[in-house]
Amino acid sequence: MNRPDIPGWGADLDRANRPAVPMERTPPRLEGVHWDDPPPQPMRVEILKSTEHLRMPPVFGTSVPPRGVSGWIRRRAFRHSENDLRHWLMLLFADRVDAVEGVVSDARRSPRVRSVAAIAGATLLGAWLVRRWP
């Protein structure tokens, strides 16, 4: 029997004869660290935080705060744990609602988009009525 060919053979050998010993650090790598936690990022907008995390990370995104109906759905989603399917399905649904809110917001601001939206809406309504008509 050739013992070195056995997987895991020699794991309990003397530390001086093991190849991984130089990579192991007897005092842990972070012993005697001299820096403090970084200063917290200012929270100028509402930040949604997972229930699994006790504190905010040092850096987080603030470019798109929750707003409107999609923000309401996101706030409800963050009440559930990340390992709950409801959390992720609600976030996916909130993304779709946010896209619709963006189109509606664009239609309110721009006369060109408003006219295109009116034509598209009329076309969809007409197609729906034609399909329902006996």
UniProtKB/TrEMBL annotation:
Sequence ranges of Basic and acidic residues compositional bias: 26-37
Ranges for region Disordered: 1-41
Protein name: Uncharacterized protein
The organism of origin for this protein: Luteibacter sahnii
Domain of life, source organism: Bacteria
